[in-house]
Amino acid sequence: MNHNGAVVGPLYLFELASSQARWLELRQSTIATNVANANTPGFKARDVEPFNKVLDGMPVRLATTSPAHMQLSPAETDTHATAKKDSWDVVHSGNSVSLEQEMIKGSDVNRDYSMNSAIVRSFNRMIMTGAKT
Fold it and tell me: Between 20 and 30 A from 123 (CA), which of 8, 26, 114, 117?
């Protein structure tokens, strides 16, 4: 219960952040494998499913804890995956690894991990501040 006597539900942010961190680890490993095989004839570049596909199976509902909160319909809060064109170029050797694309994906992983860590730190500070009062 919070200080107003209202029941507070479980906090799943840490579980979500942990799931994304595991996904980022798998994606980084896949990128490293692609880069390591950049000169291997016939090697086909790989990638993992986008993280939002993991979340698509778990619909997120907005909580309204006050009558002043805005009400949104489920259609307004639904997310849609965007189609991504497969842009791998296959060279004469049959290899489809583009080092430029792999480096871009690697920097995306780094950025996402940094954001994940910053959110977890902020949330942890918020919980610790609440626990001290």
Answer: 26
